[in-house]
Amino acid sequence: MTAQNSATLPTTIAVKNPVRRGTALALLGVVAFSLTFPATAWGLESFGPWSLVALRSVLAAAIAGAFLLARRVPLPARAHWAGLAVVAAGVVVGFPMLTTLALTTSTTSHAAVVVGLLPLTTAALSALRTGARPSRAFWAAALAGAAVVIAFTLAQSGGALSEGDAYLFGALLVCAAGYTEGGRLARLLPGWQVIGWALVLCLPLSLAGSAVGLAHEPVHLSGHGLAGLIWAAAGSTFLGLYVWYRGMAEIGAPRASQLQLAQPLLTLVWSVALLGEHLSPAAPAAACAVLVCIAVTQRVK
Known about the structure:
Strand content: under 5%
Structural class: mainly alpha
Number of helices: 13
Distance between the termini: 30 Å
Mean pLDDT: 85
Largest sheet: none
């Protein structure tokens, strides 16, 4: 090895490691998110949809608040609060509420594949918000992955959309907005602080929602219901978003969003293993096609 090559090697490693670390963190977030719908389905066995979403947010805010207090984290700068409000509206309130309402009429597997359009939605909003300009090859792979997801959705539902699809498409838009703004803020604040402050910002609304929901919706406590609530709060809302925003800050929102193409297929596995839902025979073929699209989006600029 020449002296010149030896001198440049540490720099090369330093450049590559953040990408690998960011990809690993984003993938961990995807795994956590893939359990959200099964956990929500379990939670609905014990709580009404409004109560479940509000309690989920309260518990997640309690965890986030404890971390913020223990670390003596100062309040964010005034310039960050508008972005935090978008994150709160999108991923703390909007997405959980809309998907929970959808799951009262849709199966977990159906909801999972519809929300598989989230990567493309996030990439598009991120390009508009941040000025990012992914290549044509990136967009071609992203659109191909979305087409697979749409075809899989229609095949599973017999060629027609389900009642909950309006909720799900609304959830796509608000969640993509929250992801995009959170990814931008995660370049300025640690990822866990972004979701932490967003959760704390929603705490007054979550507490009020819990009181109203519990007063008007029946509660039937069960092991599944409590486990679903706890995972939705601690696993999906806090831990999942923490690692997701950290990963997104390192590899960028468009590239990180494409890793989520694997999320609906992971959720399908969980829906069979945990909920006993029927898995379409087309799932393995769809999984292979989506994973090829993921590989392409991770390699092109």
